[in-house]
Amino acid sequence: MPKQKGFLKLEGTYDDVTFMKTQDGYIAKKKSSISKQRIKTDKKFQRTRENNAEFTNAAKAGKLLRNSINTLLKDAKDNRVTSRLMKLMMVVAKSDPESVRGSRTTAKGDVSLLEKFDFNVNAPLTNAIKMEPQAQIDRAQGQLKVDLQQFIPTQSVTVPDGCTHFKIVSAGVELDFEKESYVANNTETEALPWDSNPVQPLTLTTAVTAASTKPLLLVLGLQFFQRSNGKDYPLQSGAYNALSIIKTLAA
Known about the structure:
- The chain is globular and about 65 Å long.
- The chain is α+β, with helices and mostly antiparallel strands.
- The chain contains 6 helices and 12 strands.
């Protein structure tokens, strides 16, 4: 898509060209001469219809996941998380081994492809925490759990400048892609000082529906703060926070 050049940047529509501002700069987009009705009915656009159907499914799946962890996500995301997640959901949909092209869905795809997805690409979880969390999902009990062995914060947690305290957060999620519904719960540690004193073993446990037949996801993250006069302030409004899917369990 062509970008606008020059000192004068335009927004709005003139003739068949729309000028707009995006996160990639100012662009100009020419209106298509192909009608929506033709795309819906013309055999030449069969592949387009198939792609659109799967694109729509992936977009809904990405939105469902984002909504399910919105409390944590609002403080730990980059400005492209929506498009990055939708792209990955397209990969999940295309892994559907049963459906024909155009009917493939995330509900029947391989949700394990979502593992290690970082919601904040500027702060990968593996960069923030230098230890291996032990993740467990018990479908029968509807229990999702993360265990962390004893650790020393200054050795095991990488923090941004100005950080004095941090929290470890977790979410357990049950997704029903077909009904576009979810069950989700969050938990977190207290604000832990970033110092050389050992932190005793920690367990973060969340619960969803017992014996659920839907995909289950376990999310883990870190939030960073600066404490002043007894109050904790998020660093750069959460720009350094990490949040990642660390384990999944297919339906």
